[in-house]
Amino acid sequence: MNTRLAVQDSATMLSRNLRHTVRSPDTMLMTVAVPIAILLMFAYVFGGAMNVGGAYIDYVVPGIILLCAGFGSATTAVSLATDLTNGIIDRFRSMAIARSSVLTGHVTESVLRNLITTTLVILVAVAIGFRPTGDPLRWLAAYGIIAMFVLALSWVAAALGLLAKSPEAANGATFFFMFLPYVSSAFVPPQSMPSGLHWFAENQPVTPVIETLRGLLMGTPIGNSALLAVLWCAGIGLAGYLAAGALFRRRTKN
């Protein structure tokens, strides 16, 4: 099957997944509601006790954006596991379509959905006092970083969804997506953590992405965080893509 037909099939699968999202607004609602609830909690409950050298709302929003991306990307695993357990994938196998389009459709839908929910979270943050200073070019770069991060997590989520035996197991397997931002620079500076956690927070993949977003949106120093963020996203995304492809071929083998 040539590339043009594969792209057309991927677009068809994307349209299918987008329709499912529109028909299941509770999925998007929870994807947005949980990060917003955490944002409000940190801004109004814990924010007064945090000393980050400036307005805490400006410090915490980049971390909330990444938390939102983690929640949203995790649903890719559940969607794929649901298609597998309901026999939808077997039906697709009987059709003259590119098999890669199934995964591509799920992952592309995840990226688009997460960019929309991220925008909603940012609008809420602005409404409660977030004051970004980035110009349009920096905002464009910030969205590019977010899209890379979501793409990487979505491919990993796709692999986990194919590995899981049920949608419930797939949901549990993505727990670390929500956990990593808590042990990063998302909510407090890593320097305030005990030495072991400090080292982990400084060297895990979420921190350079957050620091890059913080620099683009708030004008703080970025240093080598942008390069590290791109490398982490590329490496994680490639690993997830290869794993998802191998698992999909195994799960759909005749």
Q: How would you explain this protein's 3D organization?
A:
It comes from Nocardia suismassiliense. Belongs to the ABC-2 integral membrane protein family. It is found in: Cell membrane; Membrane. The longest helix is centred in the first third of the chain and has 30 residues, at 56-85. Helix 1 packs across helix 5, helix 5 packs across helix 6 and helix 10 (206-218) packs across helix 11 (225-251). The chain has helices at residues 3-23, 25-46, 56-85, 88-93, 100-127, 136-163, 167-173, 175-179, 195-203, 206-218, 225-251. It is mostly helical and 254 residues long.
Describe the structure in brief.
It contains eleven helices and no strands.
Helices and strands in order:
Blueprint: H1 3-23, H2 25-46, H3 56-85, H4 88-93, H5 100-127, H6 136-163, H7 167-173, H8 175-179, H9 195-203, H10 206-218, H11 225-251
Helix pairs in contact: 1-5, 2-3, 2-5, 3-5, 3-6, 3-7, 3-10, 5-6, 6-7, 6-10, 6-11, 10-11
Organism: Nocardia suismassiliense
Keywords: Antibiotic resistance, Cell membrane, Membrane, Transmembrane, Transmembrane helix, Transport
Membrane topology: Multi-pass membrane protein
